[in-house]
Amino acid sequence: MTKTSSNAMWGGRFAAGPDAIMEAINASIGYDKRMAAQDIQGSRAHAAMLAAQGIITDTDAAAIREGLLTVLSEIEAGSFEFSTALEDIHMNVEARLKEIIGEPAGRLHTARSRNDQVATDFRLWVRDQIDAAISGLNALIRALLTQAEAGADWVMPGFTHLQTAQPVTWGHHMMAYVEMFGRDMSRFSDARARMNESPLGSAALAGTSFPIDRHMTAEALGFDRPTANSLDAVSDRDFALEFLAASSICAMHLSRFAEELVIWSSAQFRFVTLSDRFSTGSSIMPQKKNPDAAELIRAKVGRIFGSNVALMMVMKGLPLAYSKDMQEDKEQVFDAADNLMLALAAMEGMVKDMSANRPSLEAAAGSGFSTATDLADWLVRALNMPFRDAHHVTGALVALAESKGCDLPDLTLADMQGVHGAITDEVFGVLGVQNSVASRVSYGGTAPAQVRAQIARWQEKLA
Ligand code: ARG
User: Is the dihedral of CA 215, 217, 223, 228 positive or negative?
Assistant: First the structure.
């Protein structure tokens, strides 16, 4: 035989083995070994189905299923020797199975191709990551709810343009992120529901002439149903793209929150103290306590969204059905998943540990003329002024306070009446930040009662 150096799995028509460079560019085993458990799970389901349909014998199926468990335990124990010559996880597992059980191993690939096999393995892998993302988000939301509950009525400045806008509550701010992470969670579950179909049995691209039962394998693998078109099933990776898209949006939310934590923990703000467990020191400046975890979370969106873009570019323009380009899907998804889970866990840890600095929040809440809108609203309500005029009068009062170097509540009644004669001392009732937040009772507003209602709704939802 001259064919010893050609691939044992498909070497039939090859006289020579691949060039070393060919092997290097072609092999995916370096990373797709992460799908070993899914590959073996899929193969075990396939073998059971082949036997149930009388395509292989029960004896062969039993040997295959047993042997695959041995392979799995070798991989888990770290004693499995992965071979680059065998390209990928699928052929590595099958080749080892052959060494263990001999001839029946060769029957496993009946009515199957690596194309439907990899599509199945990858869906199973992505599905696990979706579940992990959902539970990571769940934990993060719980941590945020605890923060929100503790500070449902603590006042702090609300910003637009990062300029003081109106006072809000700490609870309200925490709950804003609960809403965002809640939508992230639902994006992951939507994606899960759409992707949960089994490609197994689509074979190379056209289906198979063997009397397989795709419903049986779909059910065994926890899929809702088999995919309905074999060409589509082996050649789309939209499920991976949806995972990356949902991950990107989630990472973007994490990044925004991380940025706020970076700002809030600075000496200039002092809104929060991050725990030592999630901070680092400086090797030269002894006073430093840096919010590194927050900064790294802030950065993760770069690589996660990068993965999303990369896989979109790989997929665009590919003709049906499978092309080897698609092997480039995995590293992107692996890297994005690893980093998303890490970012979620780090954020959860930071939120659990962080302590809000209530006096700083309160002091900042009242600065920057944050109750100017309350003053304008009062002019509308008490003096029946058109809002545009009230806005103008308030602007003049702010300018006056600014020139005197004080805040709005520090102006005297005489100061106020100098700007508009009809103002009464009743106005001082709306200038305090507590009154300001308590008055914002519109649904979804910052009033503590509204915030507590939203906390209760979420607690019920997660229970
Ligand atoms: N390692 C390959 C991948 O990840 C498996 C599928 C190979 N299929 C093929 N027709 N060569 O895409």
Answer: negative
Structure token pair of residue 92: 């590595």
CA 210, CA 225: separation in Å to the nearest integer?
A: 19
Helix, coil or strand: residue 167: strand
Active-site residue, selected from the candidate residues 135, 282, 323, 355: 282
pTM: 0.94
Measured between alpha carbons, how far is 344 from 301 in angstroms, rounded to an integer?
Answer: 12
**Contact, 439 vs 374, CB < 8 A?**
yes
Tokens of 292: 């590194």
Give yes or no for a contact between 160 and 5, defined as CB atoms under 8 angstroms apart. no
The whole-angstrom separation of Cα 281 and Cα 226 is: 53
Atom of ligand 1 nearest to the CA of 322: 10
Tokens at 205, concatenated: 């691209």
Distance CA 227, CA 215 (A): 10
Instruction: Using CA atoms of 358, 359, 363, 365 in order, give the dihedral in degrees to the nearest 10.
Output: 10
Establish whether 28 is a catalytic residue.
no
pLDDT block averages, 10 residues each, the chain of length 463:
59 84 95 98 98 98 98 98 97 98 98 98 98 98 98 97 95 98 98 98 98 98 98 98 98 98 96 90 81 97 98 98 97 98 98 97 92 94 96 96 93 95 93 92 97 98 94
Predicted local confidence at residue 124, as pLDDT: 98
Indicate the length of the chain as a whole number.
Answer: 463
One-letter amino acid for residue 125 of the chain: W
Alpha helices of 103-206 — where are they, by DSSP H?
A: 114-150, 170-195
Q: Whose CA is nearest to atom 10 of ligand 1?
A: 115
Pocket of ligand 1 contains residue 60 by CB under 6 Å: no
Tokens of 303: 């690589």
Mutation choice for ligand 1 from 122, 327, 331, CB with most ligand atoms inside 8 A: 327
- Ligand 1 neighbourhood includes 121 CB (under 6 angstroms): no
Ligand 1 close to Cβ of residue 117 (< 6 A)? no
Residue whose C-alpha is closest to residue 104's, from 61, 74, 68: 61
Closest residue to atom 7 of ligand 1, CA basis = 114
The CB of 440 under 6 Å from ligand 1? The reply is no
Question: How far, in Å, CA of 160 to CA of 157, rounded?
Answer: 10
- Token digits of residue 135: 């539970």
Atom of ligand 1 nearest to the CA of 87: 1
Atom of ligand 1 nearest to the CA of 88: 1
Centre of ligand 1 from the C-alpha of residue 69, in Å: 23
Pocket test for ligand 1, best of 31, 83, 114, 320 (most atoms within 8 A of CB): 114
Active site residue 403: no
